[in-house]
Amino acid sequence: MDKQKTLICGDVNGNFNALFTRVESIVKKSGQFDLLLCVGTFFGDDNSQLDAYKMGTRKVPVTTYVFGPSNPDHAHHYCEEGSEIVPNVIYMGRRGLFNTSTDVKIAYLTGLSRRELGKDIPMCTYEPSDCSAVRDACFRGQSEFRGVDVLITTLWPSGIQQDECQKVDVEQDRLSDLLSWLAIHIKPRYHFVPSKDKFFERQPYRNQSMHQDYRECATRFIALAPVGNNLKEKWIYACSLQPISKMRMTDLLQATTDETPCPYDPEMLKQHQPGKVVKFTGNGQFFFDMNAPDDDQGKRKRGSDKPESKKRNIEPEECWFCLSSPKVESHLVICVGTLCYLALAKGPLTPYHVLILPIQHHQSTTRAPDDVIKEITKFKDTLKKFYATMNMGVVFFERNYRTSHMQIQCVPVPRASELQILEVFQDEAGIASIQMEVLPPYSEIRQVTLPGAPYFHAELPSGEQIYAKTKQHFPLQFGRDVLSSPPILNCEDKADWRQCQLTKEEEEKHVANFRAKFKPFDFTIEDDSDSD
């Protein structure tokens, strides 16, 4: 089984040339790596070196992921979550779980703890509710949770510094009990943090289980020094990761001669939620009062701590697809559900080419709430039955690249072409130098890509799903190019929707025809009658 080759570095502090030059030399010596994780502060006081990467005169050699800031002076440099800071450098946000294409699970919670710090720093602090959210994301869909492959945090978990064999001095404000709670629950195989000066690799510790006779995986805790530091301390780390979900239990549980017991309090395993209130003792130590009343003031949705000026929000009244917008072309609407609606596509490939769209403003499937996804799935299942009456299959595809409102394209295709569709997609991807992957069965796009990250995703009549990470210059009409090709719909003149737009009268006729034929399948009619 292929392993994921990963590089991890400490605080960059604006030393971009030192970082990427070193990465280039590692790649030349050891071959290409899949990704680079910057676990510390990415920006510095002087970020002028980044200009060359913005202009394209220098290139980032490995896809690089950057995490949330801990310095408020740097907050304005960050872009929207999932977007590129410069080509091939993606901002992941403050918290989340990222499943790579090889199923490596990377959990992260960066920034400072507001509760333990005693004050809020916009865009740079997290709450106990953030810890719970990361834990829940790791547990979701896992009937037997083994752990995650990587955990990335800015602060060190309290207790990790207590290593009898290695002396390490960590400032008190760099330690967090909240992260101890998170680490003991999600059991990372690797836990990476930035160090202010020296490299530190703790002896592996064996994770604890609620059941004394059950053996858990071990964790390697590694703190990386700042990039290009004068002390010549190690600041970059390379590893090959086999996904924890695909490892044999004998390998996962194999002991090492230097491993230690878990440094965290096992009582935390009994706490379904981390401490509600932090109380300080006279010597500056803190502990959690688990009996304190709930304090939800710090709760916030992911990304809601970003200043409004940095969000590239489009107001509903300005969006072409928000149903409440005056700009929406209402004559294209076929039916309206509770959270989503069905509309005729502009410049349709066939008279039955439609879109599933959320009523409210959601950028992509990966950013939509679960109830919206549930109704999208209901529309898809209904359309499959509808198209089947015409002896047609259906391709659903979404391009989350240079779009602001989610659009699921639904294109009926002849049954005779179904076996060729995957091959045509792969051929077109090869011509356009697009790295396309076939996803594992029953997987979801939200499991393989970051919320907001650009991608192309399609569901084929065969049940197969294809995914591509969209990079700069990704062909905007890629899905239509494939489906309009001779082996499938044979209407290449319609590859670009702008070249085959209908008049308003023609569109109204298409909508009326679709609505009439779709009526026996239209579950939104039942929803309307139920609500009366």
Outline the structure in words.
- By secondary structure, the protein is α/β, with parallel strands linked by helices.
- It folds into 2 domains: 4-270, Purple Acid Phosphatase, chain A, domain 2; 320-521, HIT-like (HIT family, subunit A).
- Helices cover 22% and strands 22% of the residues.
- Strands 6, 7, 10, 13, 14, 15, 16 and 18 form an 8-stranded mixed β-sheet that branches.
- α4 packs parallel to α5.
- It is elongated, with a radius of gyration of 25 Å.
Blueprint of the fold:
Layout (H helix, E strand, L loop, with lengths): L3 E6 L6 H15 L4 E4 L12 H5 L8 E3 L17 E3 L2 E3 L3 E5 L5 E5 L2 E2 H4 L7 E2 L1 H12 L8 E6 L2 E2 L17 E2 H10 L1 E7 L5 E2 L3 E2 L11 E7 L11 E6 L7 H4 L7 E2 L15 E4 L5 E4 L43 E4 L3 E5 L9 E5 L11 H19 L3 E9 L7 E7 L3 H14 L4 E3 L6 H4 L6 E5 L5 E4 L9 H6 L20 H15 L4 H9 L1
Parallel strand pairs: 1-2, 2-3, 3-5, 7-10, 8-9, 10-13, 11-12, 13-16, 15-18
Antiparallel strand pairs: 1-17, 4-5, 6-7, 14-16, 15-16, 19-20, 21-22, 22-23, 23-25, 24-25, 24-27, 26-28, 27-28
Helix pairs in contact: 4-5
Distance between the termini: 56 Å
CATH topology name of the largest domain, in short, is: Purple Acid Phosphatase, chain A, domain 2
Q: Please describe the biggest sheet, giving its number of strands, its sense, and whether it closes into a barrel.
A: 8 strands, mixed
Estimated share of beta-strand residues: 15-25%
Q: How many domains comprise the coordinates?
A: 2
Low-confidence stretches: 276-312
**Number of strand segments:** 28
List the total number of helices: 12
| Gross CATH architecture of the largest domain | 4-Layer Sandwich
What is the name of the CATH superfamily of the largest domain?
Metallo-dependent phosphatases
